[in-house]
Structures are given as C-alpha cells and as structure tokens.
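Design request, tokens follow.
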C-alpha cells in the first residue's frame, strides 16, 4: 500500500500536463452536475472561490491576490498534494496517481490550466461544505452551508486560509 508521502513524490515527478490531467480526472469523479450546486464555467468557479475567501474573512485585496495563483503551475501541484492528504479525497487521488491519465486517456484541449485548477478546487470544496448557487436576473449568489461534517465556527475561515495557501503558496 502506498502512503500519502509516496503519492506526493509521484505527483512531484509528473509533468505539468499530467498534473492537469490528474486534477481533471479527480474533479470529474468528485464533481456533480446539479447547476444549483456546480459552477457553470471557470468565471463562476472563480467567483465562487472569491466568495468563499471573503466569507472566510479575507479582504477583497487578499482574495484577489490569492486568486492570481490559479495561473501558477505550482498551485496545481499544491492542490494535488492537498487532495492526496485529505480524508475525503485521498483514496481517489491515490488511485489516479497510481495510474496517471495520459493524453490518450483524457483531453484538456478546450480547458486552460486555470479552469482545470478552479474546477478541481471547487469539487474538493464540495466535499467540505454544501455550496448553493442562486442565479437571478444576471446575478450570481453563493451560499455555503456547513452540513458536510460537524463544523466548528471557524471552518470557513480555515478553508479560506487553506485555499489561499494552495493558490498562493506558503506564507513568506
């Protein structure tokens, strides 16, 4: 049996493309298709992550700075590392990393790296909190309900801190 540390080593040996393909596969396996709980596109996923960061106490400026991380290839590796250690996603991530997808198995031709990262991040967050998306008159509103597990008062703050670390890297 392979340990999470061994999966991290495997993830670090993967090419950037393999990391993206692995995240895409994990997101597809985790994700739902209910539009009331799933972003319709990368723009809405971006807005959802921003709303989570703001709900977790981050300022607009800090949220915007963290979201710049979606363009950093290291953020995809940090998310893959988090997925491999998280109790809800470790088994799925281990299975994907044991046989990483190849270009013949999956295609991200229409998805940019940032969109794949956002999709995987949202899919993972859905294992932590119930996300409700309301779309009315051209506006989108996000609600986060703490029904996935017994929640401490600081769960959104902790998730916001973790998402910021994934996107931006460790504090310097």
């Amino acid at each position: 049996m392979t340990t999470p540390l061994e999966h991290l080593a495997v993830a670090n040996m993967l090419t950037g493309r393999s990391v993206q393909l692995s995240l895409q596969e994990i997101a597809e396996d985790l994700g739902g298709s209910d539009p009331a709980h799933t972003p319709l596109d990368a723009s809405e996923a971006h807005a959802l992550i921003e709303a989570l960061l703001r709900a977790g106490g981050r300022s607009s400026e800090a949220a915007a700075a963290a979201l710049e991380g979606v363009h950093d290839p290291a953020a995809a590796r940090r998310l893959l590392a988090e997925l491999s250690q998280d109790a809800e996603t470790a088994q799925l991530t281990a299975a994907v990393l044991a046989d990483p997808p190849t270009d013949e198995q999956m295609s991200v031709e229409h998805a940019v790296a940032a969109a794949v990262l956002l999709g995987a991040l949202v899919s993972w967050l859905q294992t932590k909190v119930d996300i409700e998306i309301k779309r009315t008159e051209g506006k989108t509103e996000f609600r986060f309900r703490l029904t996935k597990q017994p929640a401490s008062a600081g769960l959104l703050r902790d998730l916001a801190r973790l998402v910021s670390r994934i996107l931006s890297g460790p504090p310097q």
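Comment from the thread starter after seeing the answer: thanks! Strands lie at 130-136, 139-145.
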